[in-house]
């Protein structure tokens, strides 16, 4: 990418991917709303490439009113139809209705504890350090992502299978799966080692 830095294998050479990799992917996220937003976007990504979601991300944020779960939880069929007519986002009825259902599940969960505390409890409050040497060593899912997925589903969340959850864990820094040779591995490791 012209700057001499070593990056993870999954980048396609585009500036949007490079920026996402260098500034966001693997950075520990502790904000409940942001964690929920990223889980919803990972659900929309199912069956598609992540670059598709990244390119549509601003349109998603606008269409979903900043991903405020309290607003989305009140939506009905008219809102589903509005979103299905929006060419800026992924127009999939099941994923749209899942986002509304997930907003309600988020609100129910937050009556017990913050969504952030809930999610981070599955990794003991500290990011798992992947120590991935080769791309083929990076798992698609883990025992932890399977357990979190199962519990999310039990609580009413949808489009949150173990593979989606693991991709979301990587994105939100619950696991640091930057390759060991990647210039972002160590900064993300250090961010994860600091107390919240």
Word description of this protein:
The chain has helices at 15-23, 32-45, 50-63, 69-72, 77-84, 93-110, 115-121, 143-154, 162-171, 185-193; strands at 128-129, 175-176. The protein is an all-alpha fold. It has a single domain (15-193), classed as Endonuclease III, domain 1 (Orthogonal Bundle), CATH 1.10.340.30. A two-stranded parallel sheet has the order 1-2. The longest helix has 18 residues, at 93-110. The protein starts with 14 loop residues before the first helix and ends with a helix.
Summarize this structure as a short list of keywords or feature phrases.
196 residues, mainly alpha, 2 strands, 2% strand
Q: What is the fold named in CATH at topology level?
A: Endonuclease III, domain 1
Question: How confident overall, as mean pLDDT?
Answer: 95
Class per helix and strand makeup: mainly alpha
CATH class call: Mainly Alpha
β-sheet strand percentage: under 5%
Number of domain units: 1
Q: Ranges with pLDDT <50 over ≥5 residues?
A: none
Strand order of the largest sheet: 1-2
CATH architecture annotation name: Orthogonal Bundle
Radius of gyration: 17 Å
Secondary-structure element series: HHHHHHHEHHEH
Alpha-carbon distance between the termini?
33 Å
User: Superfamily at the CATH H level?
Assistant: Hypothetical protein, domain 2
**Number of DSSP-assigned strands:** 2
Largest sheet: 2 strands, parallel
């Amino acid at each position: 990418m012209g700057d001499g830095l070593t990056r993870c294998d999954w980048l396609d050479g585009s500036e949007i991917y490079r920026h996402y990799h260098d500034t966001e992917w693997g950075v520990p996220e502790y904000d409940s709303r942001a964690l929920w937003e990223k889980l919803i976007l990972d659900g929309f990504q199912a069956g598609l490439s992540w670059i598709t979601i990244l390119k549509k991300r601003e349109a998603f944020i606008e269409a979903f009113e900043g991903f405020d779960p309290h607003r989305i939880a009140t939506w009905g069929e008219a809102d589903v139809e509005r979103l299905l007519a929006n060419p800026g986002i992924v127009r999939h009825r099941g994923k749209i209705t899942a986002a509304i259902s997930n907003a309600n599940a988020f609100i129910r969960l937050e009556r017990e504890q913050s969504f952030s505390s809930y999610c981070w409890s599955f990794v003991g409050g500290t990011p798992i350090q992947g120590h991935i040497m080769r791309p083929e060593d990076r798992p698609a899912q883990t025992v932890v992502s399977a357990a979190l997925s199962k519990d999310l589903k039990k609580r009413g969340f949808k489009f949150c299978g173990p593979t989606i959850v693991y991709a979301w864990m990587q994105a939100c820094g619950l696991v640091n799966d930057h390759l060991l040779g990647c210039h972002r591995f160590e900064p993300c490791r250090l961010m994860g080692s600091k107390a919240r």
